[in-house]
Amino acid sequence: MPHKTHKKFEEVTVSTQPIFQGKIISLQVDTVKLPNGGEATREIVKHPGAVAVLALTPDDRMIVVEQYRKPLEKSQVEIPAGKLDAGENPLDAAKRELEEETGYTAGSIRHISSFYTSPGFADEILHLYAAEQLVKGQANPDEDEFLEIEELTMEQAQAYIREQRISDAKTIMAVYAWQLYKLTGSFPT
């Protein structure tokens, strides 16, 4: 996501201390020089990026998966999503995640938006796609993924948001993008 940096707010990195290197994320503490000349520390989570797919069936339902989210200690209903592999094209990852988690392939898939999930402490960027002209197949989730697939109407998705069965930003954003699509015939750009 290229953009013009506002130099007056820039924090220049003085040093970086690696803290943790995991399979998905790493954590570092940066010492930075502030715009006023002072110094501060920033705890930063590094992430390879991710994709998420708003998959819409021909009868106007959204494909979701329910799975347990350990950080929240509860199950969540979410759109299919997953992290990017090293060097992987986000479009290819979106197709892969849709098929792995749901078994569906898409005759049409297009980019809706890319956004940072938690810019206050992480560099994760998420690429949101819309998939249509779906063909059902066999799901093949990762060994450690236990999912239940469901097809929701717009009304059901909105009820799930109210009930907090859907409470993650990517899925809520996807529902709002779908709502706009239904009203205007196009996704936000």
TrEMBL record:
Transmembrane segments: none
GO molecular function: hydrolase activity
Name of the top EC class for this enzyme: hydrolase
Cofactor: Mg(2+)
InterPro entries for the chain: NUDIX_hydrolase-like_dom_sf, NUDIX_hydrolase_CS, NUDIX_hydrolase_dom
Keyword Isomerase listed: no
UniProt keyword annotation of Hydrolase present: yes
E.C. number(s) listed in UniProt: 3.6.-.-
Residues of the Nudix hydrolase domain: 45-181
Keywords, in A-Z order: Hydrolase
Top-level taxon in the UniProt lineage: Bacteria
Cross-referenced PANTHER family: NUDIX HYDROLASE DOMAIN-CONTAINING PROTEIN, UDP/ADP-SUGAR PYROPHOSPHATASE
The protein's name in its UniProt record: NUDIX hydrolase
The organism of origin for this protein: Paenibacillus ehimensis
